[in-house]
Design a protein that fits this description.
- By secondary structure, the protein is an alpha/beta fold.
- The protein has 2 domains: about 5-195, 3-Layer(aba) Sandwich (Rossmann fold), CATH 3.40.50.170; about 205-300, Roll (Methionyl-tRNA Fmet Formyltransferase, Chain A, domain 2).
- It has helices at about 10-25, 45-55, 70-75, 90-95, 115-125, 160-180, 215-225, 290-295, and strands at about 5-10, 25-30, 35-40, 40-45, 60, 80, 100-105, 130-135, 145-150, 230-235, 240-250, 260, 265-270, 275-280, 290.
- β14 (about 275-280) and β15 form a beta hairpin.
- It comes from Candidatus Giovannonibacteria bacterium RIFCSPHIGHO2_02_42_15.
- Its EC number is 2.1.2.9.
- InterPro entries: Fmt, Formyl_trans_C, Formyl_transf_N, Formyl_transf_N_sf, Formyl_transferase-like_C_sf, Met-tRNA-FMT_C, Met-tRNA-FMT_N.
- Keywords: Protein biosynthesis, Transferase.
Length: about 300
């Protein structure tokens, strides 16, 4: 496709979209990504920047997008495509693109506008989510919709599972939609703001487990917030990460947070059931399976986590 495109994104999942466009013949004239960051004593480039450099494609990685307005305008791209950029684009930047900037959003808008829609879907126990392609506006995720596709959420899906599902579906949807959009075949659809729901950026505090909550809620939290920031509780004043787990339903009279032996591993009481950890990591120790953990930490049985 001869239409010049500027791609806007940062992490590995953005590269999946970027590479799909590139391999399908879309002309990637430049990429806009986040700046390099310091990791320990080294400087780390974003995955999108690394990919673009390998392909000899122009890279913009400013701290402030307004700093590269002139250079971006000189590219002459009529459309931008954004996936996983993580910043709000200023109106001066959006105005550079006659056909707009198309955003790939991992929810069925207007549900879950904001920066963490996958986590929000899992936390809420949603059974259905999807991918929305929309026009980017200054107001977060409120632009007109070009296309949407539903994706079912299974009870076993965690964040990584669901992100992979959505990215595969999203890349296919993007490749099918862009030619139709650029040729004028698609009439964008207004969102119903009265049906909008919002999610916020996830913090470490959001990952602290409250064992007095229903077991299903705790299980959804574990599914949604791993690997980052990682759901956790405390045992003997040390942080215990619960990185994956199964849900066991059933009434009991145990104090929330009580630890019991179970099938060679252990389970933890919550309201209306139990959480059965599969993979855990105790502060200062390596990640391990629940069976191996209990062999070295038998004294956790009978304790109450907090």
């Amino acid at each position: 496709m001869s239409e010049k495109i500027i791609f806007i994104g940062t992490p590995d999942f953005a590269v999946f979209y970027l590479n799909a466009l590139f391999e399908a013949g879309f002309k990637i004239a430049a990429v806009l990504t986040n700046p390099d960051r310091k990791v320990g004593k080294s400087i780390e480039e974003t995955p999108v920047k690394k990919w673009a450099k390998d392909q000899n494609i122009k890279v913009f990685d400013p701290v402030q997008v307004k700093d590269v307005l002139d250079e971006t305008g000189q590219i002459g791209a009529r459309v931008g495509i954004m996936a996983y950029y993580g910043k709000i684009l200023p109106k001066e930047f959006l105005a550079l693109f006659p056909r707009g900037v198309i955003n790939v959003h991992h929810s069925l808008l207007p549900r879950w506008r904001g920066p963490a829609p996958i986590q929000a879907s899992l936390l809420a126990g949603d059974k259905m989510t999807g991918v929305t392609l929309l026009a980017t506006e200054e107001k977060v995720d409120s632009g007109d919709i070009l296309a949407r596709r539903e994706v079912e959420i299974s009870d076993s899906d965690n964040y990584i599972d669901l992100e992979k599902k959505l990215t595969l579906i999203g890349a296919s949807l993007l490749l099918q939609t862009m030619p139709k959009y650029l040729s004028g075949e698609i009439r964008p659809e207004k969102q119903d703001d009265s049906k909008a729901s919002y999610c916020r950026r996830i913090s470490t505090e959001d990952a602290k487990i409250d064992w007095e909550k229903p077991a299903q809620v705790v299980h959804n939290q574990i599914r949604a917030l791993n690997p980052n920031p990682g759901t956790y509780t405390f045992w003997n004043n040390k942080r215990l990460l619960i990185l994956s787990a199964r849900l066991e339903t059933g009434e009991h009279k145990l104090k929330p947070g009580t630890v019991l032996l179970s099938d060679g591993g252990f389970k933890i009481a919550a309201e209306g059931g139990f959480i059965k950890p599969l993979i855990v990591k105790l502060e200062g120790k390596k990640e391990t399976g629940a069976r191996d953990f209990i062999l070295g930490n038998r004294n956790i049985v009978g304790s109450v986590l907090n």
